[in-house]
Amino acid sequence: MADVPLRPELAPDWMTGMVAGMAQARSSERMRRTLDSRAPRAGAPDDSAVLMLLTGESPDTAEILLTHRTPAMRSHSGQMAFPGGRIDTTDTGPVDAALREAWEETGLQRELVIPLATLNAVSTAGNQRAVRPVLGYSADPGHPHPASPAETDDVFFAPVSELLEPGNRLTVGVMGFKGPAFTINGYLVWGFTGLLLDVIFDAAGWTQPYDTTVVPLRRALSGSRNDERYF
């Protein structure tokens, strides 16, 4: 059975650059460096998928759906994330899986989402799973919420303009890792999710210069609401 089809032709005008940039992600030197360092092993099947859902009528009003993983979770506890998870045998593919996981975690109805594009699979740092990022758009996404409190305890749309504000951007480092991060609603968005935000914003040509001095992750997390207790 075929996966849920992508419909890039239905992207709003203000997202066409992002969709095209994702399709040609390696045309950007910044994106090439980022993605090449997180490429799964050759031939590895997709293990998981995440949904990067935007809503709004322009870059100035755009928002993107984020979740906060419950601190009691055994893996990635307290981290900010996109809705997503493992691809089940009952899923028709990564797009189907991303839509299903988003519904399970946030109550987002799949019929409200237009899948636009995917990135090449990206590996997670901890377990090297191959994760397929799926870009989607919804003109009216309803009211996503923590539909699975055991997994997520906060769900919200983050204004893209706030994420792009140079004062809300930083680079964090820990145990040999160095990567982009964002602050929003008192949370620190870093790691896999921070990397993907950086990639899609660069694809759209929206990135603004910011201070890239590396901040130790422990220090960056100390004033946040993340509650990532293992650092």
Automatic annotation (TrEMBL):
An example molecular function term from Gene Ontology annotations: metal ion binding
Identify which cofactors the protein needs according to its UniProt entry.
Answer: Mg(2+); Mn(2+)
Keyword Magnesium applies: yes
User: Record's SUPFAM superfamilies?
Assistant: Nudix
Could you tell me what this protein is called? 8-oxo-dGTP pyrophosphatase MutT, NUDIX family
Record organism: Corynebacterium mycetoides
Where do the Nudix hydrolase domain residues begin and end?
45-183
Question: Which Pfam families does the entry link to?
Answer: NUDIX
Alphabetized, the UniProt keywords read: Hydrolase, Magnesium, Manganese, Metal-binding
- Coiled coil ranges: none
* Entries under InterPro entries matching the protein: CoAse, NUDIX_hydrolase-like_dom_sf, NUDIX_hydrolase_dom
